[in-house]
Design brief:
mainly alpha, 121 residues, D-Maltodextrin-Binding Protein, domain 2, single chain
Length: 121
């Protein structure tokens, strides 16, 4: 099990600036206020798949959403570690403008998303 406080952001492979998962990891590691202290070396990609491939060859550490981790091969999953409680979570929201007249469409979308989520989530 991992403790968030034990992570050094300079050891974590991150996605490109502007990617929401990157921002969430920086917030998780409380580095927003310490951005200038980030490593001089930066690799930029918008793809978790690319980061996973680099890690397989180069080693390192990244934080994956559960859905991305589920697609790993069983021999790759042995390297996964979970966070101690309370575990970090991401929330997905559907936001609509007041008076949006296609509310039924949004409700159907919401139901489809929930129905198709894996049981683990």
């Amino acid at each position: 099990m991992l403790n968030v406080k034990d992570l050094d952001i300079n050891d974590v492979w991150l996605l490109t600036e502007g990617h929401c998962l990157r921002d969430q990891i920086l917030n998780l590691c409380e580095t927003k206020r310490q951005k200038e202290k980030l490593s001089k070396f930066q690799y930029k990609t918008g793809s978790l798949e690319t980061i996973i491939k680099i890690m397989k060859r180069q080693g390192g550490l990244t934080i994956l959403p559960t859905l991305a981790a589920m697609d790993l091969k069983s021999e790759e999953k042995q390297f996964l570690r979970e966070f101690n409680s309370p575990k970090p979570k991401r929330e997905i929201s559907i936001i609509i403008k007041k008076g949006f007249y296609k509310l039924k469409l949004i409700e159907c979308l919401k139901e489809e998303i929930i129905i198709n989520l894996p049981e683990e989530i």
